C-alpha cells in the first residue's frame, strides 16, 4: 500500500505542476491548445488528488502518523512540490 501511495504522491505532484504549466505558460500564448489539454490534465489531476487523500487515510495507521502528521500530509496536496516532500519525509517502509 505504501508503494502505491508513493507513486500516487509523485504522480499527483507532477499532474499539479503540469496543470499549472498549462494555465500559466500555454494559455497566455493565445493558442487554443490549453483548452484541449485542460480536460484530460484536470481529470487526471482530480483522480490522483482523490487517490492521494484516500490513500493517506488508509495508510495512516500503518505509518504510525500522529494526527498532526496526517494533517500535514493532507495539506501537502494543496501546495506545489509539497507531495514530493511528503513522499520523502513521511512515508516509510516502502
UniProtKB/TrEMBL annotation:
Per the record, the major location class is membrane
Q: Does the keyword Cell membrane apply?
A: yes
Membrane topology reported for the UniProt record: Multi-pass membrane protein
Keywords for the protein's UniProt record, in alphabetical order: Cell membrane, Membrane, Transmembrane, Transmembrane helix
The places in or outside the cell where this protein is found are: Cell membrane
* Residue ranges occupied by any DUF3817 domain in the UniProt entry: 3-91
Respond yes or no to whether keyword Cell membrane is given for this record. yes
Entries under Pfam families matching the protein: DUF3817
Q: Which residues cross the membrane?
A: 7-26, 38-60
InterPro entries in the record? DUF3817_TM
Name of the protein:
DUF3817 domain-containing protein
Q: Which organism is it from?
A: Flavobacterium buctense
Amino acid at each position: 500500500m505504501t508503494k502505491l501511495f508513493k507513486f500516487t504522491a509523485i504522480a499527483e505532484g507532477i499532474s499539479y505542476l503540469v496543470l499549472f504549466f498549462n494555465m500559466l505558460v500555454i494559455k497566455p500564448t493565445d493558442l487554443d491548445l490549453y483548452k484541449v489539454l485542460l480536460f484530460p490534465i484536470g481529470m487526471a489531476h482530480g483522480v490522483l488528488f482523490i487517490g492521494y487523500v484516500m490513500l493517506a487515510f488508509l495508510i495512516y495507521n500503518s505509518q504510525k502518523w500522529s494526527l498532526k502528521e496526517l494533517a500535514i500530509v493532507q495539506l501537502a496536496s494543496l501546495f506545489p512540490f509539497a507531495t514530493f516532500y511528503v513522499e520523502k519525509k513521511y512515508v516509510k517502509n516502502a
